[in-house]
Amino acid sequence: MRWLPAAAMGVLLTLGAATVAQAHVNRQVGPYTILVILVEEPTFEDNHAGFEFWVRRAEQPIVGLEGSIRAEATGHGQRIGLQVPPIGGAGFYVLDRTAGGAAFDPLGGGGWSLRLWGAIEGTPLDEEFAVTFPSYPRVGAPKVAGDATPAPDSPPVMGLLLVAALGLGLLGAVVVASRRIRLRPAPPTLEPRR
Fold it and tell me: Residue 44 in contact with residue 50, Cβ under 8 Å?
């Protein structure tokens, strides 16, 4: 029973590290470095979610890729084509709109993959980035974009693992706390003299 708190903390740290690692993904393609960053899951309908990425060759940002790179997000049984507009001419690109112009919706968070393909200054590109959107309560969640095509269903495994890990962590905390609390005898009561 002594191993339970340590095991629970190990599971929580492992899942926490996996989630953090999946929020920002770095990849080398030829002489280019690509960094994919999440625009987090929206809490309200008028917030936006999606992906941002930048491309660099050494320290030099690569601009003009909106014409040579295509993007697609896959998750929650959906395959969604995304627009690739630049942000401010500094080698950053934001993918928060579908090819049809609707806001991208990660459907409550969880595992998604982003596929980028095409070319970077003539260098072929076909890379997939696995990421995990955080899950937040939603208010007025938008409907899935009309250009989404169904992909095979998959259970929300990461969510189930996180719930299981949190349950183990809570159980471990209760065990540790119960060992620290010692039952003390009640103080003697004084009875009035007669």
Answer: no
